[in-house]
Amino acid sequence: MIDEKILADHNLTRDEYEYIVKLIGREPNLTELGIFSVMWSEHCGYKSSKVYLKRFPTKGKYLIQGPGENAGVLDLGDGLAVVFKIESHNHPSYIEPYQGAATGVGGILRDIFTMGARPVAVLDSLRFGPLDNPKNRAIMEGVVSGISGYGNSFGVPTVGGEVYFHECYSQNPLVNVCCVGLAEKDRLFFARAQGVGNAVIYVGAKTGRDGIHGATMASAEFGKDTEQKRPNVQVGDPFKEKLLLEACLEAMAKNLIVGIQDMGAAGLTCSTTEMAAKAGTGMEINLDLVPQREEGMSPYEIMLSESQERMLIVAEPDKVQELQKIFSKWDLDAVVIGKVTDDGQLKAYFHGELVIDIPVKAVVDLCPAYRRPAKTPAFIKKISRFKMPEMPSDLNQVFLQMVASPNLADKEWVYRQYDHMVQVNTMVLPGADSAVLRLKGLKKGLAMTLDGNSRYAYLNPRRGGQIAVAEACRNLACAGAMPMGVTNCLNFGNPEKPEIMWQFKEAVEGIAEACHQFDIPVTGGNVSFYNETEGKAIYPTPVLGIVGLVEDVSAVPSAGFLGNKEVIILLGENKEELGGSEYLKLVFDEEKGQPPALHFETEKRVQECCRQAIRQKLVRTAHDVSDGGLAVALAECSFKSPKKIGFEVKLNDQIRTDALLFGESQSRIILVAKEKNARKIMALARKLKVKAKFIGKTGGKKMVIWHKKKKVVDQTVEMAYNAWKNAIPGYFKISKGE
Amino acid sequence: MKFGVVVFPGSNCDYDTFHALQNVMGQETVFLWHKDHDLQRVDGVVLPGGFSYGDYLRSGAIARFSPIMAEVKKFAEAGGLVLGICNGFQILLEAGLLPGAMLRNKNLKFLCQHVHIRVENQKTAFTNAARKGQVLRIPIAHFDGNYYADPELLAELEKNKQIVFRYCNEKGQVTEGANVNGSVSNIAGIINREGNVLGLMPHPERASEKILGSEDGRVIFQSMINYLEKKAGRGKKKATKVVKPKVTPLPPLIGTF
Amino acid sequence: MKVRILVFLKPSVLDPQGQTVRNALLTLGYKSVKDVRQGKAFEIELENVDRLEAEKIIPEIADKVLANPIIEKFTWEIIEA
Amino acid sequence: MKVRILVFLKPSVLDPQGQTVRNALLTLGYKSVKDVRQGKAFEIELENVDRLEAEKIIPEIADKVLANPIIEKFTWEIIEA
Ligand SMILES: Nc1ncnc2c1ncn2[C@@H]1O[C@H](COP(=O)(O)OP(=O)(O)O)[C@@H](O)[C@H]1O
Ligand SMILES: [Mg+2]
Fold first, then answer.
1. ipTM above 0.85, yes or no
2. Which of A295, A388, A630, A677 would staple A618 via disulfide (CB 3.0–4.6 Å)?
3. What is the pLDDT of residues B67-94, one digit of tens each?
4. Which atom of ligand 1 lies nearest, measured to the CA of A626?
5. Are the beta carbons of D65 and C6 separated by less than 8 Å?
């Protein structure tokens, strides 16, 4: 009865099927096959990536919980723990931008509060095709309002992220959402179905035919209107999720819960099998008891439904009543659907019949892992070298063009739609290198950032991975924060292609090496493969989410200039590196060369110097130099200055002027200080063997840069600010026909 | 003084408001559960921001039917102080405790940003601590903050000095550009005729601590405290000494009573 | 019984959503579009009620809950007996 | 000519708004309410088009702009010739 077509529809190979038969000792029925299919999918089983992800460091000073749980956990001291994780929702966001992005937020929030943490921040990394295409604008508009619609209603601030535009994302937008939560360290919850005889309780929204995979298969069984009945996109209900959060946290606080797991991808299947497998137990459930939104659902549909806003709880039988009371107070269903058993099997009954009987270990732990072939793509050689183009004569004009490039322009159009202040902790709002949350009642705070540069990763995936980690850490350093742990989202094409696998392997190794260097553990993450349309893959896009500890929030500097006549210091060194720069792409439409070099020792010293200067309260403004180079970084300090203060900078480096202004050499940070403190910073830099120099002063209404006695940039802040500010909103005005 | 912050399903600024009142302003503060009928003898009620009932249907439309709202109504009719912030303002409008209605922001987008509002009437229970025409810098965060009143109502509001806050620029000028959500006559907050119920879209609880970028929101809470103390006959003197609670990074569980 | 209730903003109230849809349609080249108003539609399934009762409660529900009479107006009809 | 287009989520798609309205109505004592679905309504005024043309462009507009066929379905009618 299980033929090739059914296997293909379930994305299983013949070999995998034979293996399943061996594991369970007989042919699986369709429902059981469906269970293996989702659990052994790339998304849940990490078939193609597992062998590489092992290279990430998973130990660290702050680590409480590494990969393998719903989210990573770090020790914040004072009895507190940070729980954080990132997820992608790329494909659904392309099909239905609003709901795709919204349910992406919903999913990651549940990953966090299922561990006993209250979500305190969300960050989103977004990548779209260029905005001159109306389809891309519509996707962006939908995605942003979806994130805003869900997060705002739920009541979690969306405090940071990134937005990036490139042709490769036109048919494959990327929506990666990271959530950070806070928990009491000794009150963490795990996805374990412990205690034979304990009750298995279903809570939250009812189950409908949402997002069931393996769709077309066996349509005979579902009738002709199957397609109609099974939309692959779920609709999110942030209101219900908020109630679910409060009810779960309340039940946790009252010690009514033994184990808990959210029902995300693969819903009931994933939560039942994983909870049992992790506890070394089994589970027996009655599918007739599962709250259902639609009539006539089959066991297959009930088990594989991806309806949102649901959780599975294991509790001691005598606690069930109190638990139900809490959920009913929050107007939510809480239904006992089964119990924990000791035989290691998942057994499910439907209309009195045993319809599932499979070993949970086989489903959860024995998913095959592949070391797929990897091969350097042919194009790598072609793009790695390039001839330096002739320098444009009017760099002052190029400067304006740069700040108005959507990749560098102001992203307020996006984050103004996000409630970034709810919970009254956000002390550094979106617009700075990293967001900072104060922790009520404590001196310390929490900094966080999301970063990735896919152009670097395209040119050199290994270095791209390294730089992503370094840049994220640098962003944290600009808030005076020490990186504590990493989560990452790896967005790639089809891993069955050796060239893609090579990109993946290289990027992972680059990230792993950088994490070793910075001594931070990877606590989890997400892999999103098959980001391809019509055979064309996206650029390899690793996105790094890093949280950092701020020892003293009162020392956190501003992202913009605060006063006139303050001294501007550059930590690090300007080099002649234009490969992979935004400048090269924007002005010459070239994506070639090598991304800038990265020397870990230098990078670490620069960051340490920045951190120490901030902790000593010497720094008024701090900003790292990244996309767009030094000139753009300086301009941003003016744009983010409450009084729009300008600057005058004099440089004498023996390199091309365009490389000096727009090159993206790593390990550079701009620090601004009062004269007296500036000298202290210089002394600190000498002590730490960090290259540092005074490059100019803040003040005035203009932005002026000299190179070797020649004025190369001379713009009023106002004019450049308007160009920067209006670039993205400008596209959306056109689309409305205003 | 004792304040009550109402918790509706979907409220999400309830704890923020509680924090501002209790930990920043040093007042005794309790949560009031929407299913309850008991106002716990509070001196002032605050309806916080958020998305009560998901803001499905219309913002504030369903919350007004909550059991607690019947008590809030009675409390208001008896002269009790009621403050509605953002979603709380929307609920007051839907409940008919304040006149007018809310429309979607004119740009059809959620807006979260700092704005400036000018105190148009500093002789109210909610603004007595403000200077005349004082400009406050306070954040907004809403989708439906575009206040609507027909011309007659608007004239009446003007006449009775019921317009308490208007969106303005940094210098205090009431301009078109400052009116980010499109409200009629730049209205950011209004008071009822009797002067004991006020609704405003900006979030004073988000502007009550220096570390969050502004303390201007305190003016509103302080005014309420002043008014209540005066009413209680204690003059504008010292606030009642409340033992300052220990502030923790994690909020207590809301709704656990 | 199934009833349908439509709620629109009153003509005197500006409807930016409708305007935005209109502009989008014009941009897409639908030149014949003169005006667009956007409202809400509700389909309510009732059980154990006869026509008479429905005629009583539906306007009540619409007036009290579904529409805000200050800015909106509603119409209703029975679409399935 | 005036046409009306109604857009609802497909029957199998979760409708949190409709559900919330339903619960509110039940709480208010309208016990006969079995189900509520909430959708969008559009009234579009067209000029210089005949029936034939309207029949061509309206479904097109609905499909392309007003509804996302993945999760929504629409109906339309001419309400004023
Ligand atoms: N999708 C987004 N959501 C929230 N904030 C964003 C988003 N995109 C960008 N931002 C904010 O805009 C600022 C600029 O982003 P970016 O140029 O990527 O910064 P950086 O180069 O320092 O990482 C950051 O502070 C970021 O938090
Ligand atoms: Mg940065």
1. yes
2. A677
3. 999 999 999 999 999 999 999 999 999 9
4. 21
5. no
